[in-house]
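Propose amino acids for all 154 sites.
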């Protein structure tokens, strides 16, 4: 019985293990995010700015401006912890919410926090034209919901 419980614990741990443990994760693999990205949608001017990977952390901020006034902002950070690589989201300077990295490809990354209200997933990818896309996904009132943004490098 103890062996069965031990095997079950190992299986549960393996399923929940991060894609990249902190000691394996090379933050430079996300250097394609660096820079100033801009776009507009429905009369809102959007700006997303990512620092370099210097210092073993990638810092970012997002700002929305409509009719010359800031209407929304968010701070974020991609960093490694002993539990893996995480995206820490802080909309309107709120306490940061962690999203674990669950997938990393050459120009695409996915972060997830199933316990968060909305979103539960955050995706970034660079398309063939060089545009940066971001998408948030999850459940709202039990139904699937998503929002997506596209920016070009300025």
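Proposal:
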């Amino acid at each position: 019985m103890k062996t069965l419980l031990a095997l079950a614990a190992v299986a549960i741990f393996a399923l929940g293990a991060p894609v990249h443990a902190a000691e394996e994760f090379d933050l430079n693999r996300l250097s394609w995010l660096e820079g100033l990205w801009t776009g507009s949608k429905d009369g809102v001017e959007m700006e997303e700015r990512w620092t370099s990977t210097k210092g073993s952390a990638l810092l970012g901020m997002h700002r929305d401006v409509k009719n010359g006034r800031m209407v929304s902002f968010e701070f974020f950070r991609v960093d490694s912890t002993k539990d893996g690589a995480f995206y820490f989201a802080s909309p309107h300077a709120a306490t940061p919410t962690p999203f674990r990295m669950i997938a990393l490809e050459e120009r695409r990354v996915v972060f997830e926090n199933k316990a968060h209200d909305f979103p539960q997933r955050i995706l970034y990818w660079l398309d063939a034209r060089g545009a940066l896309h971001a998408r948030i996904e999850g459940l709202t009132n039990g139904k699937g919901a998503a929002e997506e943004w596209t920016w070009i490098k300025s």
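Residues 20-153 form a domain with the Lipocalin fold (CATH 2.40.128.20). The first strand starts at residue 35 and ends at 41.
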